[in-house]
Amino acid sequence: MNLEELNKQRIIELKKLIDNANYYYYTLDKPVIEDSLYDSLYRELINIEKEFPQLKSHDSPTNRLGGETAKGFKKIVHDIPLYSLDNAFNLKEVQDWIAKTEKLLAQSNKKCLVAELKIDGNAIALKYHDGILHTAATRGDGKEGEDITNNIKRIKSIPLKLRIDKPPQWLEVRGEAFIDLHSFKKINKLREKNNQTLFANPRNACAGSLRQLDPKIVSERKLDFFAYQIFFPDNFKICDVEDNHWTRLKFLKNCGFKINNHSSLIYNTEELTNYCNFWEKEREKINFDTDGIVLKINNIEDQKKLGFTQKAPRWAIALKFPAEEVSTKILNLSFQVGRTGVITPVANFNPVQLAGTKVSRATLHNLDRYQELNIHELDTIVVRKAGEIIPEVVRVIKELRVSKAAKIPFPVICPSCGEKLERQPELSATKCTNKRCDSINIGIIQHWASKSAMNIDGLGKKIIEQLFAANLISNIADLYTLDNKKLMTIERMGNKSINNLLKAIEESKNKSWSKKLFALGINHIGQVTAQSICNKFDNIIKLRETTLENPERIKKINGIGEEVIESLKNWFLDDINSSLIDNLINQGVHFSDALEDITLNLNPKINQKQFVITGTLNSMQRSKLIEKIEKNGGFVKTSISNKINYLISGENPGSKLIKAKQIGVNILSEKDIIAFFSDN
Q1: Which of 458, 446, 444, 568 has the alpha carbon at shortest distance from 507?
Q2: Are residues 239 and 186 located together in one domain of the fold?
Q3: What is the pLDDT at residue 293?
Q4: Secondary structure of 563-625 as H, E, C letters
Q5: How many whole angstroms separate alpha carbon 481 and alpha carbon 491?
Q6: 118, 296, 515, 659: which is the annotated catalytic residue?
Q7: Which class for 256: exposed (0-12), middle (13-18), buried (19 or more C-beta within 10 A)?
Q8: Which of 173, 264, 285 is nearest to 225 (CA)?
Q9: Rounded to whole angstroms, how far apart are CA atoms 648 and 371?
Q10: Number of neighbours of residue 333 by Cβ within 10 angstroms
């Protein structure tokens, strides 16, 4: 089958899926897929049709302005069509759009944009006659919508009479009806109490409310409305200054409408970048859903010159926030062996853009999740990434499964060492229990060398794998036996790289006792727990003795429970680990701090205090600062909350500084924290 035939088949699949989604969303008000997934499928169809225009058919979803009008409501014809917006998915695509408009507006010197948050609600068209609300309609297919006037009159943020003197004979307002997040939670809580189906999201709840036959339901659900566009007769003037979109927004406010206060005028690339980057992060803090930013040419005359395509205005574009879900076709599954021996199935696929980054792999977590997903060869999967979380496979789109595709089997033997795998249902884990498995030991060394542990610069996974393959190391202690002669045998390692690596390995011997304890990779011993333990025990010998002979003493440490004690016991009872500690001590890696450093001389300004760091530091590396804070009994966190004592702010601080000021967290400069250390 040639490339054109393959794409022809894919178009058939995509059309079926998109048409089905449109029917459920617009006609039945029961969305079956997320917006981000719909956008991903729609964009894929557009790209294929662009590459193979001969394959585009008259019934393609890309020819439509929207879904079909639902039955059961009186229809209203839109005198002024409700167009869709073209989408951009990154700032480069926005810059391309700007360049295109500037080329078309060569004679205009009024280059200014209005940026508005794209409200994730339901588009509404309102018609006023002599200042009185006459009709209200849904978007429908863009040309014809549904008459929902009675319901719209229950939305208190929509004026029944315009609050201006001498209104024009007619006026049409466009905007977005929505349900804020607080109200949405209350609605679903009540539905749960009444054993009703929960709404999938606020927009779904809003759409369902607008189409209720009983207008009281709209009042009860507290729908809201933001106005963003206005039309009026040519002979009507809204102000004496230049007619532009910004002044029209102000006029809407004067008429009694709510407009989004987060809108902004944009004059240059820097302002555009700052606005977009700010709201991509801050959108989670506002009380309504937004899925992007709408950018509009401000000058109305320029808008008229640019006009419309068949589907969208040329003078506006929607920059969609990075998708947190996207669909893609799986290439294969690989099975990773972690440092604890746990087997993690991983889906591999062609690179896709997800939450602002390019990804080509996503986790299935464990055997239970693997069985639940039931992945077959060449399946189309949905991948999700929220915030900084590792990409994961959410589900399989079974409607797109290739006929007679075989299920991808889960291994019964370790893909690394060949030993039989052991199922541990209580942990939802399948493990390799062979302590000499190369993948396990590579993972242990990788953790030891990691930035948050011993921070051995230059000792990444690839170098560790090469050292294993050359039989130069088999455990952590072997790192400290490496020398120039041994490393010269490793491919693509020159003198400079070798010297830097050996220096970093040697310097790691001087890391704090808590860093070394954490670096051992003992289950349930994270950085904070390691710090708490090392504040009470000045070396590993005392810790081992207490763990095995008097574990109740350890339980008295704040935050330590049975799980941690059991993990320490199991680790110390293992002869391989006892031998490892002895070998490391013989190599000069001492698991202790001077007693006075950890008990008698802890800095009272830092001890037991919680810190967050933001911005760029000049006087020391961030990792060194974290180490000094922890050595003095402090804790370094990653996010601002009421529990944080201090925010250390360097150059170019991020949104953490704004939040810290809002909730009253103490702010320290770089000089301030250095002074803290000097005071001790």
Answers
A1: 458
A2: yes
A3: 96
A4: HHHHHHHHHHHCHHHHHHHHHHHHCCCCCECCHHHHHHCCCCCCCCCEEEEECECCCCCHHHH
A5: 19
A6: 118
A7: middle
A8: 173
A9: 46
A10: 19
Q: What is the sign, positive or negative, of the torsion defined by CA atoms of 639, 618, 680, 595?
A: positive
Dump pLDDT digits (tens) for 477-499: 999 999 999 999 998 899 999 99
Does 579 fall in a domain?
Answer: no
CB 627 within 8 A of CB 511: yes
Reduced to 3 states, what is the DSSP secondary structure of residue 96? Answer: helix
Tokens of 156: 């208190």
Choose one of 505, 529, 544: the last residue of a domain: 505
My answer on whether 19 and 101 are in the same domain is no
Backbone angles phi, psi at 312, to 5 degrees: -145, 155
Provide the sign of the torsion angle of the four alpha carbons 353, 356, 359, 365, taken in this order: negative
**Structural domain contains residue 578:** no
Question: Closest by alpha carbon to 141, among 54, 44, 223, 61?
Answer: 61
Determine, yes or no, domain membership for 225: yes
Strand-pairing partners, residue 144, are 77
Compute the distance between CA of residue 669 and CA of residue 650 in angstroms, rounded to an integer.
6
Task: Name the stretches of the chain with pLDDT < 70.
Answer: 1, 23, 26-29, 63-72, 107-110, 241, 355-356, 386-389, 594-602, 679-680
For residue 393, give both structure tokens.
Answer: 């496979």
What 3-state class would DSSP assign to 341?
coil
pLDDT in tens, 140-179: 888 899 999 989 998 989 999 998 989 999 999 999 999 9
The length of the chain is 680
Q: Specify whether 486 is catalytic.
A: no
Instruction: Provide the residue type at 326 as one letter.
Output: V
Measure Cα distances from 128 to 79, 134, 171, 194, 232 in Å.
Answer: 13, 5, 5, 39, 10
- Residue 208: C-alpha distances to residues 36, 127, 181, 214 (Å): 21, 22, 16, 12
96 found inside a domain: yes
pLDDT of residue 386: 58
Domain carrying residue 273: 75-320
What span, in angstroms and rounded, lies between the C-alpha atoms of 564 and 554? 9
Do 82 and 202 fall into the same domain? yes
SS3 state of residue 307: coil
Asked if 118 and 250 sit in the same domain, the reply is yes
Q: How many domains does the chain have?
A: 5
CA pair distance 343, 408, nearest whole angstrom: 15
Q: Does one domain contain both 410 and 460?
A: no
pLDDT of res. 444: 96
